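tmp note - WYL domain-containing protein
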Amino acid sequence: MAASKGRKAPDQLVFLLSLVPYLLEQRVVDVATAAEHFGVAESDVRDAVRLIATSGLPGATGTYQANDLFDIDWDSFEDDGVIVIVHHVAIDDAPRLSAREAAALIAGLQYLSATPENAGRAQLDSLLAKLTAGASSTPTRLAVAESEADATLEVARRAVAEGRQLEFDYRNALGEQARRRVDPLRIASLGPDWYLQAFDHVRDDLRNFRVDRMSGLVVSDLPVDDHSDRVLSDTLFHGSDTDLDVVVDVAPEALPLIADYLADAREERVGDRLRVTLRVAHHHGLKRLVAGLPGLVTVVEPPEARAVVADWAAAGLAAYEV
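out:
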């Protein structure tokens, strides 16, 4: 075992800060077991326990009374080498999550647990248990339902992991649908949307496919081709000669959210907004972008782009009319 000789002060502090929660969780533990757990000498554990027993939090008078200090079972410690903390202070005064906060975090962890790469991870189960125990009251039970997009994402992830070709029906932003055969290379996300980055055998080039527009997925027995000569960019979207420029006014705080669409870095202040130029594959792609940032993005020009967004919004509003 490692001895404390030569240990730096920060390491000693980390050891002490870790030892107290460990002892409280174990309730009863012998010196040898604690020393093995932390990889230190038994003498280090004994010295640390004695130091803990002189630690505490002064009362209202600014002085230490009997109940203001940690206390241990000294007979068990000195005679049998067993550590039992019989009184602790300040630990329970730490801020605790509310039941609603804990429930929200638990729901998020349940969603992560459902993804293939996190399935069966003991660390997530342990964290779920700690969140439940550490809340100020019992968290509300929430169930995270799997959506159709979640099931599609799982199949796409499996194809990437196994290195096999994937076939699916794809509906683009114009509503056009076609059967595609691709070599899946990577799963990426942009905001709330998931994308499959793949080599499209029909287009003979790399393409990005939005997962919620994919259906009828079939994982082929054919392995993916070698694409080691191709570089997958960290940016999902890239410009092309057919892209269209659209001028929009955007709230400054929302500008980072549309950074991937910016045609250049030029900005013009117009009142409390910034006027920038976006580059999109087609005007229909603006509908989801504007809807995802309600009140934060306004299409200025060209007229065709304004008309596409206005007609789409009007159609949505009409659906609510009695």
